[in-house]
């Protein structure tokens, strides 16, 4: 029996450029489980995108949010960060960077919009929703999924009652989804993490990180995963609306170009190294989400101007494994060949 009676190939939620109705719908319609990374979407937009997904497919999909992070406003740190951005703004012909008016969306309103959108699955990264929240969501008919980068996080999520846990290995593209200790602490590879979580937990485990083709899917299943969740490989499918500069940088990157960086957001995330990650390596930065909001104008302008050196090029270590995935449905089909029914 497959997990939640859903297909075993899930597209990982990806906030940012890949948070597209066309992509999510194409994955679900193509025989996988599409997931919308809604962390950066305004609450009203979550409802709109979900409606667009529904207009394209009646297949189930998921919505993912970042559990809110406690953070200390750090005006001095932020100003120092803005100073680092200023030269790059000038290079792109942008006005000097200023303190953002707002750093993040209202989480409670996002969650309300997510509930109203009625996805099959609601997943969280970067936190444990706790038993009351999980019970309330389950009572409303949602499957609730948490993200763990170490066994202790998986145990906490299980104790909160989640239906399944994503085991996010070190290879994974994008932000580290863990929440215990420092994000720099739990850097456990998928091959090591999945069986440890499978052994420690009674709830099903989804494998994430470094899975890009049928071989990776077969490996994850052999490790005991109940499904896989694939991010990076879906960035290069036809339906993913990636800016050309981002896409070209992913196509050009080598296996050794992957890095974990805090440079764009203040929180560890994996992507292709570029000027920003090199020049801010080791820099003291204010906590997430302050740099994330402050660097947004630079990143958006760089994407428009075709300047990959200033874009957060989130992608995982397995990027070079599968760089010609074709359509979303073709990638789902190719990945599915690695899963034994
Ligand atoms: C561009 C990008 C954005 C991501 N955004 C999110 C997100 O919003 N929420 C989340 O839980 N994980 C996010 N992730 C991590 C994925 O959920 C997943 O763990 C990862 O992509 C799996 O590894 P892979 O990239 O090697 O397939 C993101 C990953 C990428 C590449």
TrEMBL record:
Substrates-to-products reaction catalysed: 3 propionate 3-nitronate + 3 O2 + H2O = 3 3-oxopropanoate + 2 nitrate + nitrite + H2O2 + 3 H(+)
Claim: Ion transport is one of the keywords in the record: no
Keywords recorded for this protein, A-Z: Detoxification, Flavoprotein, FMN, Monooxygenase, Oxidoreductase
Cofactor(s) listed: FMN
An example molecular function term from Gene Ontology annotations: monooxygenase activity
Domain of life the protein comes from: Bacteria
InterPro entries in the cross-refs: Aldolase_TIM, NMO
SUPFAM superfamilies associated with the record: Inosine monophosphate dehydrogenase (IMPDH)
One Pfam family cited in the UniProt record for this chain: NMO
Signal peptide start-end: none
Similarity-based family: Belongs to the nitronate monooxygenase family. NMO class I subfamily.
Name of the protein in its database record: Propionate 3-nitronate monooxygenase
Native source species: Pelomonas caseinilytica
